[in-house]
Amino acid sequence: MLVLIFSLASNAQEIALLKYNGGGDWYANPTALPNLIKFCNDNIHTVINSKPATVTPGSSAIFQYPFVHMTGHGNVIFNDHEVTNLRNYLLSGGFLHIDDNYGMKPYLLKELKKLFPNKTLQEISTNHLIFSTAYQFPNGLPKIHEHDGLPPQALGFFEGDRLILLFTFESDLGDGWEDAAIHNDPEEVRSRALKMGANIIKYAFID
Q1: What does the pLDDT average to over 14-22?
Q2: Domains, the chain, ordered by start
Q3: Which residue, 75, 88, 113, 207, could crosslink 22 as a Cys pair with Cβ 3.0–4.6 Å?
Q4: Phi, psi (5° rounding) for residue 195?
Q5: φ and ψ at 98, to 5 degrees?
Q6: Would you put residue 71 in left (φ > 0), alpha (ψ -120 to 50) or beta?
């Protein structure tokens, strides 16, 4: 199996957005990743290409990226080949961040069960490294947008001690990464979202 080795010290770094099937709007929040990249390059010494790539779950190209981001509001479907390829990507060193943009969870959970039938999504402890790699979040995942009045949750799949998949729910980090004029979030809220995003990026690159 191909083993991926990534580092913050790499001369060239790239991240990617996951284009999935099922009808969900995988392309939601178009300014989110470019803004997060700029924040990371300016503040945590990454040198990420300013334009994120787009990859599909079944492509060999996914193995080029230490961090893949997935978002949307609706349906998600992984076929058998995509399940196998995505599983291999994660087990060989890749990292997938899934940010529920509201309404994605019921569709996503059945696909995650196909991806790792023997794993259970675990609530990530507030003392996990992902909450302190660059910025301190002692209370865990920040709340960026209100939807159903539920607390934000950071859930994940682990392989040994390594977090390989992060699912952020009832937080809406991606909305907080978008251009300020899109959601009119206060700067303090956008800052929290970007700082948490930087933590996720840094964890994915150095773990």
Answers
A1: 96
A2: 16-206 (3.40.50.12140)
A3: 75
A4: -65, -40
A5: -110, 120
A6: beta
